[in-house]
Amino acid sequence: MRAGEVRERFLSFFERSGHLRVPSASLVPSVYDPSVLLTTAGMQPFKPYFRGDEEPPSRRLTSCQRSFRTTDIENVGLTLRHLTFFEMLGNFSVGDYFKAQAVEWALDLSTSKEYGYGFDFESIWITVFGGDDELGLGPDEEAIGYWRAVGVPDERIVLLGRDDNFWQSGPTGPCGPCSELYLDRGPDFGPESDRPGDDTERHLEYWNLVFMQYELQADGALPELPTKNIDTGLGVERMASLTQGVPSVYETDLFGPLVGLGEELSGRKYGDDDATTRALRIIADHGR
Ligand code: SER
């Protein structure tokens, strides 16, 4: 499944479920937002809606947002999955549906062979926010309950802390606990003892569901937003690596040609040695 179809399957699935398809906003933040230099996620253009400052054109939105993460720059080339510039597919609810519906749709689109990505249900692992003392929040029992309700056994539900499963777009702003979907890529990528969240390559995180209900303040206070919202993010490049059965984002139809151009211009070969592979990945990421 080429990247174009990864995008289209997502956007049309959510369109059929009553979401308004909106185009990607600029990489330079399209709304006043001093918390970031560049757009880092699909939710950023929608912050005024989550805060209740502006009325959204629809309570349900879906988009494919150009995003840029300076925080990942040192990892580019070292892992199979990190990029600076990437595209993030998302479905958003502004005070409409919440956790249960987001969980059901994420699983349906992940597993449907007909209109989704066709993953085996048994290969999908889930992470859930395990609580944080500083934030004064306990484990997200509600989310655990919804994953159990759609049939995910406890062995494949992993509780993680604030670093992994509490999402905020900058030091302040709309935020909330999140729950991530991972695909177990099997023994070629690591031993059975690997777990989602332990920074190994066997389980690839491909979709983040944020239950956005707080507004983090500079002093650490965590008041509730006017509505309970959903903000999800699925990386097009990572999903393309899964649907194309290639080990890394650099071997997908999105990056293969750029790596090939780097090889042609440098006379080096991807895979020759670690330094060359890393350099060709960096050229492809930065070039794009
Ligand atoms: N905002 C969340 C993220 O970037 C989900 O879209 O992961």
Commentary on this structure:
By secondary structure, the protein is α+β, with helices and mostly antiparallel strands. The chain is 27% helix and 25% strand. It contains 8 helices and 9 strands. Strands 1, 2, 3, 4, 5, 6, 7, 8 and 9 form a 9-stranded mixed beta sheet that branches. A hairpin with a 4-residue loop joins strand 6 (166-168) and strand 7 (173-184). Helix 3 (99-111) packs across helix 4. The longest helix has 14 residues, at 3-16. The radius of gyration is 19 Å and the shape is globular. The two termini are 21 Å apart. The mean pLDDT is 96. Serine binds at residues 41-43, 90, 167, 208, 210, 231-233.
The level of helicity is 25-40%
SSE pattern: HEHEEHEHEHEEEEHHH
Identify the bound ligands: serine
Biggest beta sheet attributes: 9 strands, mixed
What's the count of strands? Answer: 9
Distance between the termini: 21 Å
Q: In angstroms, what is the radius of gyration? A: 19 Å
| pLDDT < 50 runs, ≥5 residues | none
User: Number of helical segments?
Assistant: 8
Shape: globular
Structural class based on helices, strands and sheet pairing: alpha+beta
User: Residue-averaged pLDDT, rounded?
Assistant: 96
Strand residues, percent = 25-35%
Outline the secondary-structure elements:
Blueprint: H1 3-16, E1 20-22, H2 47-50, E2 60-68, E3 85-94, H3 99-111, E4 124-129, H4 141-149, E5 157-160, H5 162-165, E6 166-168, E7 173-184, E8 203-216, E9 224-235, H6 236-243, H7 256-266, H8 274-287
Parallel strand pairs: 1-2, 4-5
Antiparallel strand pairs: 2-3, 3-9, 4-7, 6-7, 7-8, 8-9
Helix pairs in contact: 3-4, 7-8
The structure holds serine.
Residues 41-43, 90, 167, 208, 210, 231-233 line the site of serine (SER).
